[in-house]
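Progress against Task 2.4 (sequence-to-structure conversion) is shown through the following example record, which the project officer requested during the mid-term review.
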Amino acid sequence: MTSMPSEQVRRLHPRLIDTDWLVLRDLHAAIKELASRVTRKGLTALDFGCGSKPYEAIFTAAGARYLGADFDGRGDLAIDSTGHLQSQDQSADIVLSFQVLEHVRDLRTYFMEAKRVLRPDGSLLLSTHGTWLFHPHPEDHRRWTRQGLCAEIASHGFDVIECVPVVGPLAWTTIVRLTCACYALRSIPFVGSKIGQLLALVMNTRAWIEDIITPDWVKNDNACVYLVLARPVAEETP
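Structure tokens generated for the chain above:
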């Protein structure tokens, strides 16, 4: 039996001692819920910027054909240096994009390519940060409000069907403090990582409670991550 890569395991099965446990747990649950509405046997799901393919199993379990696309030969399909997919027009039923958009410099090309490879009745399932720490991989360009993200996606030819907030401001401020504290603790030999794990147990539990008590009207517009389901707008014929 082939074991999953460590990053894939971390995203699918985050531990309470991980600093981003609550974000990864709730994002995974949200992806599963929306994926169940757009995925069925025989469809092709193309993961645009797949990385370690952390959510591949969600789509293959539903019977979809999963294809990962990334730079430097890390996917089943290549993305060239200009951001174009090496894939035929209208070759995918679902385009996936998880925690990629904030790293994209040229949004126009990114969305044009997503729309090009999608079939007319296809779906775009995309997540990105509303609020988070700077994290270049290798670049980090932007954060969105809910309104701004939906408007951005719509301006590139997609109709936003749903925008799901993941982790509200009470919790993510706690998580940010935890992340920074654990980073500092790593510099302490021998005991730093153990202290960080104990701190994570406490702070993650606090963040979980804080997110439960955060009103939806607050979380909706102040989320750490947004997960969007969108569909391509049909081109008007002259």
